[in-house]
Specification:
Length: 458
């Protein structure tokens, strides 16, 4: 497992987690006199051990565009039986996009061509006129369906599942009723998101089988007179997506909305969550910002491969894509570690002086967890490393979900056509987002499906 200070373990509550962070800071960072001094050494402290020895990956599986008959049948059967847990992560702070939480971003109502040009100008540092911005668009923003990104995300899964059910002679209503979802979001989104799920009648899914979790945010650590302390005067921040998966192993973090109205929450014990996870053949973790999802939430070829690898003992399957050569972004880098004699996924802030443009195989953040109880148990027992980040003069921790690849047997795959990653990360990706939403709106039957779902909710 990467150094990154040390792994977390042996905590049962959020208070225990912060206590572990404080203990780790005293143990590993006690030689520093100030937070500013820690910031100056942040890159070195987070550096993956022997990063200079990393080589090009060697064991990347290549997934053909179409699934074999056996894989396709296995994937379809697992989905129809409700044996796949669909996890949707939407808790990110969205600071680079500068438009608030991505889940609630309604481009048709909130982003004009003029505003798009302004955001592109701000990001690039060069003047972008509305005319130039419009040339990159397949439609004007206001011509899109007035749906938020999160609504689009949930509707697409229900739409694709319904279409699959009809193709295989099943009832769409019954197939949707068998599915299980886990939706992760931040505290600021709670009331709005609960209201949305009620308004849309849970998008056709069974409310008792839709679990939610609010990813907790934390104040920063401060350092005075050689003593680290949890400074409640500091801004609250999320501790990255690794803390999200750690939090899922704690007691009474996941809840359901089973009452007649929002805020009637039923929290689940750790034992209940473990029993729930035991029933799944695979968990797919989707990221709200993935734009390819908008026209294909069900990747049966990838699911078939993950199920097959699960039978061979893999407990994590990660897809990699090419970085965008025009605007390379940070993220997990796949590389061969000669000391471990295996491919590993290493987060970009652990790569020392390796630049984004040198990350050729990038984690798509579209992960499978075959037999998800197994990886959940390993997280519960071992925790994750705790890299650090200094923000606004305070110390925060940023565990990485991808570091699960150091805990369990993990496989990596790519598509035959290695396309660049397509995700809504910053204003530069807004034109692509608009075009992908336009493609979603043009899917045969999608507008009518969304309209029926909306009318049912009234």
């Amino acid at each position: 497992m990467p150094f990154a200070l040390a792994p977390t373990a042996d905590f049962n509550t959020s208070d225990d987690y912060i206590s572990a962070c404080l203990a780790l800071a005293h143990e590993k960072l006690g030689r520093f006199a100030s937070i500013a001094e820690i910031a100056a050494h942040e890159r070195q402290l987070n550096r993956y051990p022997h990063v200079e020895l990393l080589e090009a990956p060697r064991r990347v599986l290549v997934l053909e565009d179409s699934a074999t008959a056996a894989r396709l049948a296995a994937a379809q059967a697992a989905v129809l039986r409700g044996e796949v847990l669909f996890e949707h992560t939407a808790a990110g702070e969205g600071t680079r996009l500068m438009l608030g939480p991505k889940y609630f971003l309604n481009i048709a109502r909130e982003v004009s061509v003029e505003q798009l040009a302004h955001l592109l100008s701000q990001e690039s540092g060069e003047k972008v006129t509305p005319e130039v911005a419009a040339r990159s668009l397949e439609c004007l923003p206001q011509e899109l369906l007035p749906l938020s990104l999160g609504t689009r995300h949930m509707l697409q899964l229900a739409f694709d599942l319904s279409k699959l059910a009809r193709e295989l002679g099943e009832s769409p209503r019954e197939v949707l009723g068998r599915q299980h979802l886990l939706v992760v979001f931040s505290a600021e989104m709670l009331a709005h998101l609960e209201k949305e799920f009620y308004q849309w009648h849970f998008f056709g899914f069974n409310p008792s089988q839709v679990y939610f979790m609010v990813q907790e945010s934390f104040h920063g650590l401060n350092l005075k007179a050689g003593n680290f302390f949890y400074d409640r005067q500091s801004p609250k921040r999320l501790h990255n997506h690794g803390q999200m998966v750690l939090q899922q192993t704690l007691d009474r973090q996941l809840f359901s909305l089973t009452g007649a109205h929002p805020r009637e929450r039923s929290f689940h014990s750790r034992q209940t969550v473990g029993d729930w996870l035991q029933g799944f053949a695979d968990k797919i973790s989707y990221n709200i910002e993935d734009l390819d999802y908008l026209t294909g939430s069900l990747d049966l070829a990838g699911l078939g491969l993950a199920l097959e690898l699960g039978q061979q003992g893999c407990r994590m399957v990660m897809e990699v894509v090419a970085n965008n050569p025009q605007k390379p972004q940070k993220g997990g880098m796949l590389a061969w570690n000669p000391q471990l004699a295996r491919d590993v996924m290493v987060e970009s802030f652990q790569l020392g002086n390796i630049a984004n443009r040198d990350i050729h195989y990038l984690n798509r953040n579209f992960n499978h967890y075959p037999q998800p109880l197994m990886s959940w148990r390993r997280l519960e027992a071992s925790g994750l490393p705790l890299p650090i980040a200094v923000k606004d003069g305070y110390l925060y921790f940023q565990p990485v979900q991808g570091d699960i690849n150091f805990l369990v047997q993990t496989a990596f795959f790519r598509r035959r056509e290695l396309r660049p990653i397509r995700s809504l990360k910053s204003p530069a990706s807004l034109p692509l987002a608009i075009n992908r939403m336009f493609a979603q709106d043009r899917q045969p039957g999608f507008r009518e499906f969304a309209q029926r779902a909306y009318q049912r909710s009234q």
